[in-house]
Amino acid sequence: MRTLDEMAAKGKAKLTAKAASMKRSYSAALPRMKTGYDATPFGPTRKANYKTGVDAGAKFYHVDPDKWERNWKAKMAE
Q: Coil, strand, or helix at residue 37?
């Protein structure tokens, strides 16, 4: 049986390998996210703030495999 460290290393490697794809997927989803939010009953200020927020999210979106590994190991060790 693999150790917790070995399992975490495998998960980290898989996350690292798909990080760029995840960022592209998030960016591609932005128009759908905005269209979906436009369908809510909220007012124009809330809708504008949401759009600004998701655009900022795309700008700063990143995957942190080291953080994922630390948190996963901590959770699995509980």
A: helix
